[in-house]
Protein 1
Amino acid sequence: MVGTAVLQVLRQGVWASLTGGCFLDPQLGAFANCVRLYVWLFLLGLPLGLYSALPPSPAVAALYCGLVAAFFGAVKAVTFRLHARLDRGGSEGDPEGGAAALLPPPQP
């Protein structure tokens, strides 16, 4: 019991802190872990790639800021749309508010 708690703290706390947030959460599915990994790789690789490909200048810094702002804006828009779709209250659809709420209502 104590050993698994220590391993969990090491994996999700210490390892995530050392790698900037990259860890695989066993409670999440493969899709969520893949998305988390690719987002982490994008946010890690973008400044390194820009620095390697382009000379450092204020224009490159502005390009980086714009790309990161567009990325976070897209994530925010998708999150907003999913919340708007799944958080609708009502008696129809999935009572737990799962993915079935995304489907159109059945035809009579």
Protein 2
Amino acid sequence: MTAGLEKACHRCISKIASNACFIFGLLAFLALPLSMTFTGMKFLEDCPVQPLIPLYLLVGGVIGSLKVTLLLYDSTRMRQLLSKSVVIDDDDDDEYPWRQNAHKYYIHLTLSLFLFLWFILGNYWVFSVYLPNFIPPFHQPQDYCDKTLYIFAVGILIISHTVLFLLIFCSCCIYCFSRQRYSSEED
């Protein structure tokens, strides 16, 4: 990666991570994994047809809350580092905050990989019993899933698919525009 591109990436990440709106967005986004955790705990025994659905919500909510909390911590830490560098007018090009904490990168990477794999498993578990009985049948009382739990899990997966699609789409757009801009600067 060229030094100019790395410096541009650093500026972009710093501006996004230090933005107060980004931090408030993360705080609002924290409600989703917390609600997953509480719903998974409340309905832990209420889906005998697929007992892994509440477990999916519970574990995904706990790990997702941890991930968002770490992102909030890193964002507030980035704000502090940037405010200190502005006050003392420190423009040292080699002082990138993520280089100082490379182990945090691996923690974020591991959590993201786990959440992605857990998301794939959750899709399988939830949609393998698509539209289960919401009321326990008399002849097979173990063949049901609580309606609130199941619809919540489907809603979480729909939101996750939408966010994943938007992230991929926006990343592709940014890549195309930056590539176009970078090639026009070379000419």
Protein 3
Amino acid sequence: MALSGELWAELPAEKRIFCSVLLFSWAVYLWEAFLAHRQRRVYRTTTHVPQELGQIMDSETFEKSRLYQLDKSTFSFWSGLYSEVEGTMILLCGGIPFLWNVSGRISGRAGFGPEYEIVQSLVFLLLATLFSAVTGLPWSLYNTFVIEEKHGFNQQTLGFFFKDAIKKFIVTQCILLPVTSLLLYIIKIGGDYFFIYAWLFTLVVSLVLVTIYADYIAPLFDKFIPLPEGDLKQEIETMAKSIDFPLTKVYVVEGSKRSSHSNAYFYGFFRNKRIVLFDTLLEDYSALNKESAEGEDGENEETKSKPKNKKQGCKNEEVLAVLGHELGHWKLGHTVKNIIISQMNSFLCFFLFAVLIGQKELFAAFGFYDSQPTLIGLMIIFQFIFSPYNEVLSFCLTVLSRRFEFQADAFAKELGKAKDLYSALIKLNKDNLGFPVSDWIFSMWHYSHPPLLERLQALKETKQE
């Protein structure tokens, strides 16, 4: 041990940094693989419905969810292994400086010399995201058209999938490249306090994106329609008014054309809040509950015409209970608290970036001996150097998220929705084939929402009153 310590101390600083990054990356991967192995063992061995679940889950659904989660876990193991090996090979083979040099040659041919660092950075970013999209495509195809298809969730055709992927890539570049160029420019001209200006810029960008996402970005991929007039809309507006939620619009998004998974969320700032419900959440509106999918405007050519699941979704009372939970997050300040935590973390990271960016050893560790590009510095520090901190922060946020979920459930109980939320959670778990049994360490580390049984137990007392 003493000898190995001496050898480690004799290594140049850049070598120690590189080895530390690589070792930590593999340590995290092995920890995640260990947790996943424990959870797969639960999937393999828990083949019968536990006694405490006998009243809420039939054996057929239990078996379906067990096999679905087992397939997902096995896929996650192989995709995670590939990702880790790919990342290691990129670092060992000097993939980052190689791609930077390629970007320089491309920008040079376009008439932009080495002094145009921001242009070269944008070319680098474009090539890096293109590489990531291409190498991830086979995994995405397998996940969608093998695993999700096998278990009845996929509603996409191959043509729709590729059109959607291309559209996502283009939209991502239209946002990513301008934002990155402005951020790099701010860092370049910001002087000693550039980290404050960079943080303020990212704060504004994040708030703008949250504001415009559902109105201008999400409709590029899914069809949003106002919730039709009727009892459900009236009851949603009444509930929102009762807690002073400034609701302006309620939308239904046709999520069923890509997947039968369900969801609901709200967005907007100040006095301009909107609620979005996936049609798969609504029993009365889900296209998957129809006897035949008679697509309008030619949409049946892009999505599967045969519905996978009958009578999916929740009744109106259960939808209201789910929304009561979601609005609880707003009423209890969870959204604001998450934004504050996120921005405090962002400010801290930019401050530490300002402290570390002048360390040439960091750049040399990843093959940049003669230059210190700002974009590469951002990548090295935020992705690699901060990785131990990011792991700890992620776990703390997971614990906090579970606490918030219990509080939102309790808020729905105060609205008198305990019974309906209880049945809604069971239905949603069934519709999404969630497996209600989990390894305690895996659950503690990964689950941002409490396990189903814990949530039901917390609701049970009020339900029985």
